[in-house]
Amino acid sequence: MMSDMPTRSNGPSLEVQMSWWTMTGLDGDAESRSLEERFHRIAEAGFDGINGFVPAPEEADAWRKLLERYGLSFSVNAYPKSAEDMARFLDQAKQFERIDFINAQVLTPFLTGQAAEALLSDIHHLARNAGIPVYIETHRGTITQDLIRTARYVDHIGDLRLTIDFSHYVVAGEMHTVSEEAEALLQKLLTRTSSIHARVSNGEQIQVDVGSSGEHPMMRHFERWWRSGMTNWLETAGQVGPFPFICELGPPPYAITADEFGSRREELSDRWSQSLLFAQMARSIWKDIVA
């Protein structure tokens, strides 16, 4: 194992992961970097882990070896529509063995009320029995489609744990400013924070460049929410770590391009440098909280 790579803590700590999705097409280079070159770039930049997908069987050994070599943690994303889907995915995750937690986008946006709550409870019980935590992401087009609905889940499901990505609610609600009503609901969700996806919306686009030092006015809100989520986790998770913070800036069409009408390759922002900025912000917030 490389000696300058980050080591992991058994106590409560921050773990900053890079999204494998974010690595897509970085620097206009979609496929030429090898698997190990991408691992090396992530580790060399100081990230603690990778958030990605369960590797295909033919790639599983290579992923295990590289995760071990670079000392990186690993989480994956799941997209179930039913408890049966989640059970099958958990079986795949257990076969890979080296997965710390699963981020789930539950793809049933039109399922509401008691039926939705029953599905979320079923997913929680499956995860507990499998021994792999599953966190439900706050995401458009999923079971957590809107802020009000998700706040009701928090009221009704005592063991619900969330991956917080408020960019979806900011853009869906056109939150150029954040009302008291919205803030109260967002804070309710933050009491269930188990991980954070870092992306900033301006209320019109889902993902914007926040400036080289985070000058965008919406950055202040996201920093507040990240701080609140971390604080709530520290107060409710006991002495169990680490806390995952995932830099997840998507390639086009998430990233805004200058050629929307064409090939969509001319991105207006640098996803890599923005990811490094978010990682720095997360570590600064964490350090201030635990000081």
Describe this protein's structure.
The protein has 291 residues and is of the alpha/beta class. It has one domain (14-290): Alpha-Beta Barrel (TIM Barrel), CATH 3.20.20.150. It is 41% helix and 13% strand. It contains 9 helices and 8 strands. An 8-stranded parallel β-barrel has the order 1-2-3-4-5-6-7-8, surrounded by 4 helices. Helix 3 runs parallel beside helix 4 and helix 5 packs across helix 7 (180-190). The radius of gyration is 18 Å and the shape is globular. The protein starts with 13 loop residues before the first strand and ends with a helix.
List the helices and strands and how they pair.
Blueprint: E1 14-19, H1 35-44, E2 49-52, H2 60-70, E3 73-78, H3 83-96, E4 102-104, H4 113-130, E5 134-137, H5 147-156, E6 162-164, H6 167-172, H7 180-190, E7 193-198, H8 217-236, E8 243-247, H9 271-290
Parallel strand pairs: 1-2, 1-8, 2-3, 3-4, 4-5, 5-6, 6-7, 7-8
Helix pairs in contact: 3-4, 5-7, 8-9
List the keywords.
alpha/beta; TIM Barrel; 8 strands; eight-stranded parallel barrel; 291 residues; disordered N terminus
Query: Which CATH class is shown?
Result: Alpha Beta
List the uncertain runs.
1-9
- How many alpha or pi helices? 9
Helix/sheet category? alpha/beta
Q: Output mean pLDDT.
A: 93
CATH superfamily: Divalent-metal-dependent TIM barrel enzymes
How much of the polypeptide forms β-strand, as a percent range?
5-15%
Main pleated sheet: 8 strands, parallel, barrel
Q: How many strands in all?
A: 8
CATH topology: TIM Barrel
The helicity comes to 40-55%
Name of the CATH architecture: Alpha-Beta Barrel
Overall radius of gyration:
18 Å
Q: Give the overall form.
A: globular
Overall domain count: 1
Organism: Paenibacillus chartarius
Pfam families: AP_endonuc_2 (PF01261)
Keywords: Isomerase
Protein name: Sugar phosphate isomerase/epimerase family protein
